[in-house]
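Exam review. A common question shows you a sequence with its structure tokens and asks you to describe the fold in words. Practice with the pair below. Do the first one on your own.
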Amino acid sequence: MTLDLLSSDSLLQALPEAALVLDTSADRIVDWNRHATDLLGGTVPLPFSYYLGDALPQFIVFMEEVDHRTEGWTRDVPLTTAFKEPLRCELRARMMPGKPGWVMMTISNLDTLDRRAEQAATAETFRGGLVEWQRTQGFFAELERQNQLILNAAGEGIYGVNAEGKTTFVNRAAQEMLGWTTEDLLGKDIHSMIHHHHLNGEIYPARQCPIYRSFRFEQVHRIEDEVFWRKDGKPIRVEYVSTPIYDQQVLAGAVVIFRDITERKENERKLREALDEVAALRDRLEQENAYLQEAITSERAHHDIIGISPAIRQIVTRIDLVAGTDATVLISGETGTGKSLVATEIHKASARARRPLIHFKCSSVAPEQVEAELFGQVRGAPNGATRDKPGKLELAHGGTLFLDDVEELPLEIQGKFLAALQNGKVQRLGDTREKPIDIRVIAATALTEAQARRADRIREDLFLFLSVFPITCPPLRDRPEDIAPLSLHLLKIACRRLNRPVPKLTEHGVQKLLGYNWPGNVRELHNVMERAAIVSQDAKMVIELAGQTFETASNPTVRTEAQMQDLIRENLVSALRETRGQVSGANGAAALLGMKPTTLTSRLKTMSITDNEWE
């Protein structure tokens, strides 16, 4: 141990009050004296944050003031002892030169100081006698004449008022903080000049002022946050102590000592706002993370658009056209036709791909909960919310909102939803603030445009807003050439997830799938392939379809895509041969294949099938 450390330690122990050396960067008490040990309790110093408890934010603000001013003091940071007993105290701190982050701090027990002050006042009264009381006469005039230098040297603002509320003296610090001169204030009602209004603009009557009450009711008042008004009309935040003054046991007035805490309050406000912002961001990130985790773990029928039909090629083309823009898209189609997949592909190919795609299915939420789910809520909102929660509009900020089953959105919510999209602002339930939002909207509906307008399920203005770029997903029965590749794709996904070998999809199995009408579209096909992956054994593939079970032997030959197209083409030719070339009607090839006559005609042209092939 060096001589400097020995001297420092000896000096610390010699101090008559509790003192310690604190390393703020490590939250460590480097050394403390016997008085600090007695005051804080224990024999081994704990991390200083232990003694702060809930007062840690106030202590951080105080340390910032000490770091800025080199030294400082405060009574706004309560401590607790090692035994968790509350301790009212005054902290005085000074930065230690050459020791970054090290602070010399003294701790004064305010209860002890108050008792000492009362004892001193009592002793003074008994000792002083008549001579002391006579010397008190003319207190304010004597104080002005003899102690002016001391008052003007003080860093705190100090002024006195007599029993009538008139100013008797004002020190230099008070003049500098308030902008008023001695000539402006002496003999004037200082309350009406510097303390007349609250910060919110409400009038502050003198009878309610703690300064006036201090000498009218003979009480000391410590006020931690009020406002004094400068001569230029600007407010300053202050904390002050108002103490009654006596002259020969007669109440003479009061002396006020105040400190400008505007900067400190502003720092506290910024700290609170920063903490609130951090909390809000944390809440939003947690919500986004939970949403993304749910989306990742949820079952997906497929991850890419699979199909070779002209309808699929047209959908892919339209996705490429609209993905690079922020245009609103309305996807229509029957249930299970892949509307959600189209929305995902648009988002993935857009400039917003790095932000989340927020999926909100209108039909999955009770009507009374839709508003809270979309717009969010704050604790204590009219719907009885117990915590703050961002809505889907907030979560989609910077990304894409996919509004599924938009026709199920309650009509009374549709207008508010449209206004939020048009104004680019959202307001949570129970909140008075609006937050800006930047989102791209993709909507999906099972209704055609004619059905939507006829049923009055979607407001006309909302429908026009959403249908800037329409995309239609055709049912599976209208694109039979997609059934084989889709089936193989879904079968592989199911087997990989179930850790099963992939059975062979034979020509016989494809024919059975082509002969079915698929009212549930791709979603139903997914279920059939997943059942097939479960029930199929070895090389045999078992298909359960429409209450019937088909067991197909495995074909060892793996067909190429061209071979699959040939099978589809051959199936169409066989249907024409069976119906002698009749396309439409109850006995036509379209009815036999389970598709529309117009669809079959289109397929015949696409595959260049002529009459010579079936005759």
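Now try the second one, then compare your answer with the model answer below.
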Amino acid sequence: MTEHAATKGTCPFRGTRIGGAQGSEPQLDHWWPNRLKVELLNQDAPQSNPLGRDFDYAEAIESLDYEALKEDIRQFLHSSVDWWPSDYGHYGPQMNRMTWHSAGTYRIADGRGGSAEGMQRFAPINSWWDNGNTDKSRRLLLPIKLKYGSKVSWADLMMLAGTVALEDMGLPLQGFAFGREDAWEADRGTYWGPEGWDGKAPTEVPADPKLGHPGDMVHRGIRWEGDVKEDYYDLENPLAASHQSLIYVDPEGPNGNGDPMDAARDIRETFARMAMNDEETVALVAGGHAFGKSHGAVPADKIGGAPEIARMSEAGMGWSNPVGTGNAEYTMTNGIEGSWTPNPTRWDNDYLTNLFKFEWEQTKSPAGSLQWTPKDPDAPKTPDAHIEGKMNPLMMMTTDIAFKVDPEYRKVCEKFLADFDYFTEAFSKAWHKLIHRDLGPTSRWLGPDQGGKFIWQDPTPEVDHPLVDADQIARLKRDVLASGLSVRDLVGAAWASASTYRDSDKRGGANGARVQLAPQRGWAVNDPERLERVLGKLEELKSSFDGEGATKISMADLIVLGGCAAVEKAAADGGHEVEVPFVPGRTDATPEWTDEESFEWLRPVVDGFRNYVDEAPGYKVSPERLFLDRAALMKLTAPEWAVLTAGLRVLDQNWDGSDLGVFTERKGVLSNDFFAELVSPDLDWRPHDEAETRFDLVERKTGQTKWTATRCDLIFGSNTELRQIAEFYAGADGESRLIADFVKAWHKVMMLDRFDVKAERKAAVEFC
């Protein structure tokens, strides 16, 4: 056979260059970069998890010898290995940094990031330059991980290592909770910012007075609007870090400008985005910088690539250093060299003492990075981390000097300087919050030493009364439906309560009934006037029922139960008898244990389920993309997303009562009318304007407008993957399938935050 010239002598795997930088041939995202990535709803496939579906991490933790694990970590902290020697003979500061940088990716806007799944092990986080050499920290911990195997996750071990390190160096702790289950694949969905991996904007920023000078914006990164010198200065939502590949901010000041006041503005914005106030921010930074050192012995251009582009011979680690031994006194991490205190492995107040006692001048590290040194030649010195007998000047970063020059931060520092015990407690509590913030409600927490209760945990009371039984549930359903509240009323209240849940940090959901508290009770998306009326009627029913005996029902349960009863009625009105599952046991939160400012971040920017779009936050993506993001945060599959939207449309759940997307003449009846009209070839979609935010669905034969719609409606008919689902449910046998699947998806949403009902919840979320 004659070989074709085009393939002669080439690799049979066309488009892949083994060992080269090209990688694989262009994929879908290359050819159609603006397509809706529905596959994001299919992440974390069970096939990727070698533990299998039946593995129970809670049982594994129960069998774990907690004290033995802590002792193994303590012994490791005081060791040193040749391939990566410990600074000062103590791995504590290095473990502390690894822990901090894993937890510190958390952002309150969408709950993503944080410690809960050990995502520092995967791209892109494992290869951010701000995470330089954290790969060495995890590799150092590997013998302990191998010893305990599946009894402790990487995510928990990474948090525990830094926490035990703090305790070993003298910090009293608030406790530690297990419960972080490992992810087994990289996160492909989180938006980390618009910059490229070189830290620059991918394209030229257009001239815009609102954005400031375009050249500055390209250098700074287009996640910022305004200028640090002006009143208008904001960070793109939902981002938290000040720049690509950073955990928080540039330690040399924004873009390395060396200006402490500019750095203070960045610090305040980024730490607030990570759920920390000014006192917590100072406590974390001042406390963290009591330990260890920064590494900048070698210029960055001599350092090898990050783990994701390192050579195979590097065995999964990156940032190879060819200078000297490549470690110890030759270590390069962020480019700044030196320690903040004379005793870098002991908990004390020397960081703040030295920061305020001495005047500091800008210098440069051996790597060429900006840093600060005391002007006073008699200032204390710090011992070299590796060379015995050598003493080095103290070091501060521009971000450290920021706490001295910013008036509000300075007040906090002075309070900590005057009361070391108060500072100790503040740092201990802030650390506890940092590493547990995305662990979710305490019903998910595991282990024997979980610590106290804090408002940021979104606590709810324990059940202190007998729960309703099947007969009482049936009676309450009848009472709710006879109360004068409509299907629209009851479904709306239940959805408003439960749909705040986001799986990223396990916040929100129906438990606690915070829909009846500020700020959620007043959110426009919840139609406050109607919600007020519904809650008032349900409170009357609750009062009447509770007065009859020991058995009681919470408002949280009654709100959900009312929605379940309404769904059953809506299906029955269309000729389909269904039973919607209901599992009691929710309790009602109180205003005293509800952080209004924190819960305001749960307010949806786009809730396509109720055709709500808030333009104010300035998200730079289309509504349907944020709708997809909302579905992903609720852990919905694509079919679940579709059936819930279709069902809520015909149940008349638009936030403002409009007819947008309500493709039915039978409002309040659960049907497949939405899909049937959406895929109808008899209707022509005509946009109202060039932006295509509103549409008329026009009958081709008559030219008459039959329906109006939004992008969040029509995406289920325009996206090729979602359209296949729509056509499936629009078929002759589609209505019964839709109703059955809507009931399952509805129950899943109502149960998303019920971590106290593991067996029932697991069974409920299986989607057919």
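Model answer, second protein: The first strand starts at residue 176 and ends at 178. The chain has 25 helices and 15 strands. Full marks require stating both points clearly.
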